[in-house]
Design a protein that fits this description.
CATH architecture of the largest domain: Orthogonal Bundle
Distance between the termini: 58 Å
CATH class of the largest domain: Mainly Alpha
Number of domains: 2
Shape: elongated
Order of helices and strands: HHHHHHHHHHHHEEEHEEEEH
Helix content: 25-40%
Bound molecules: iron/sulfur cluster
CATH superfamily of the largest domain: Hypothetical protein, domain 2
Low-confidence stretches: 353-358
Number of strands: 7
Radius of gyration: 24 Å
Number of helices: 14
Length: about 350
C-alpha cells in the first residue's frame, strides 16, 4: 500500500510540482548549497518572504566558500527582517565548518549533517533527501498535517509527533526519495492546506482515512497553547547634541546574538521603576520615561520595554558603543524589536532626534 501511495504522489508531482527559485529542474542534480540555504531560510518563514532573501544571498555569496569567508556582520545585516537570527549565525558557522573540516562539501548522511551548526532533524533529512536523494523522512508542520489526515490520527500535537514521524517513515520510498519529499511538501502547501483542503485534486483521496471519516479538515488536533510569559525591561534612547544615538552590540551568544540594539536593562518578570532602571543606563543622567511601552513577541515569551530618553554632552562610554544618527541605522543589523523601539523613540523623544533629518533610515 505504501509503495502505491508513494507512486501516486510522485505521478502527481511530475504534473503539478511547484516552481521554486531553489528547486532544480527535473533531471538536474540539485546544488546542496542552495538546498541548505533555502531550507534554513524557510524555517519559521514563508516561501514568498524567503524568495527575495534567497536571491540576494545567492547574488552576494554564490558559493559555500564565499559565504564562509563573509563577515558575520554582513550576513546578519543581509538576514535583517527574516527573524530568528540564531539561524543566520549558525548559517555562517556551518559554512565555515564545512570549508574547514569537510573540504567545502556537505556530508550526505543525516547523522553527519545533524552534527553541523543549525541543522536539526528536519533540515538534515531535507538536505539528505533533496540534495542527495537519500530515503530520509522529512517531516515538518505541513507533512504532519497531511499524515494526520491521511491516517486519521486524532491524538493532538505535540504528543502525536512521534507517531506521525513513524507513519511518515513507513511511507518514504526507496525510489526517488528526493522528489517524494518535495512532493509531500507541495501537497501540504497547495492541496492539503490547513483550511479547505482540496481533496478532489489529491492523489491520496482514495486512501485518506480523515476524508472518509469526514474529519480531515479538523486534523491535526492541537493541545491548547500555554500563554507566553510577559517580561519587562527599559530601553535607553541616549542622544548626543549632534543627533547621534547610542547603539550597542549584543553578546554573540543567546537571543539576538551579535545584533545591534539600544542599550537596555536586564529583562525580568517584574516591571521596572524609572529610578531602578536608571542605575542600568549607559550614563548617569536624568532619564525621562516616554509614555507608552513597546511590546514584542518572541517564540517563548513576550517583552514589554519602556523607553527612557536623555541627552548627553559626553560620548564617553563602554568599549563597543556605536554612535549613529538614526538616518544611518539601516547600515546596522537591527532586530525587529530594536526597529520598533527606534520608530517609537524617534517620534516621541524630545531633542535633536525628533528633527526630520534624524528619522531612522
Ligand atoms: Fe489531505 Fe484531502 Fe488529500 Fe486527505 S484527501 S490527504 S485530507 S487533501
Amino acid at each position: 500500500m505504501s509503495a502505491a501511495l508513494a507512486q501516486a504522489l510522485l505521478d502527481w508531482y511530475d504534473r503539478h510540482r511547484r516552481r521554486l527559485p531553489w528547486r532544480a529542474a527535473p533531471g538536474v542534480r540539485p546544488d546542496p548549497y542552495r538546498v541548505w540555504l533555502s531550507e534554513i531560510m524557510l524555517q519559521q518563514t514563508t516561501v514568498p518572504v524567503v524568495a527575495g532573501y534567497y536571491q540576494r544571498f545567492l547574488e552576494r555569496w554564490p558559493t559555500l566558500e564565499s559565504l564562509a569567508h563573509a563577515e558575520l556582520d554582513d550576513v546578519l545585516h543581509a538576514w535583517q527582517g527574516l527573524g530568528y537570527y540564531a539561524r543566520a549565525r549558525n548559517l555562517h558557522a556551518c559554512a565555515r565548518r564545512l570549508v574547514v573540516e569537510h573540504g567545502g562539501c556537505f556530508p550526505t548522511e543525516e547523522k553527519a549533517l545533524r552534527a553541523l551548526p543549525g541543522i536539526g532533524r528536519y533540515t538534515a533529512a531535507a538536505i539528505a533527501a533533496i540534495a542527495f536523494d537519500r530515503p530520509a523522512t522529512v517531516v515538518d508542520g505541513n507533512v504532519e498535517r497531511v499524515i494526520a489526515r491521511l491516517c486519521a490520527v486524532e491524538t493532538p500535537l505535540p504528543q502525536a509527533k512521534t507517531a506521525l514521524y513513524a507513519l511518515a517513515a513507513e511511507l518514504t520510498p526507496e525510489t526517488r526519495p528526493g522528489d517524494y519529499a518535495q512532493a509531500l511538501m507541495d501537497l501540504g502547501a497547495s492541496v492539503c492546506t490547513p483550511r479547505n483542503p482540496g481533496c478532489l485534486a489529491c492523489p491520496w483521496r482514495i486512501a485518506c482515512e480523515g476524508l472518509a471519516l469526514g474529519i480531515a479538515e479538523s486534523l491535526p488536533h492541537r493541545a491548547p497553547k500555554r500563554p507566553r510569559p510577559l517580561r519587562h525591561g527599559v530601553a535607553f534612547w541616549l542622544m548626543r547634541a549632534d543627533g547621534a544615538v547610542l547603539l550597542r552590540r549584543r553578546p554573540d551568544d543567546g537571543l539576538l546574538g551579535g545584533m545591534i540594539e539600544l542599550p537596555t536593562t536586564p529583562w525580568r518578570d517584574e516591571p521596572w521603576s524609572l529610578a531602578e532602571a536608571s542605575a542600568h543606563g549607559p550614563q548617569s543622567l536624568p532619564w525621562q520615561a516616554l509614555p507608552e511601552p513597546v511590546r514584542h513577541g518572541f517564540t517563548h515569551f513576550e517583552i514589554e520595554l519602556q523607553v527612557a530618553a536623555a541627552e548627553t554632552e559626553s560620548d564617553s562610554g563602554e568599549d563597543g558603543d556605536i554612535w549613529c544618527p538614526p538616518a544611518r541605522f539601516s547600515e546596522h543589523a537591527l532586530p525587529t524589536l530594536t526597529r520598533k523601539l527606534v520608530r517609537y523613540a524617534a517620534r516621541h523623544s524630545p531633542g535633536p532626534a525628533r528633527k526630520s533629518e534624524a528619522e531612522p533610515g
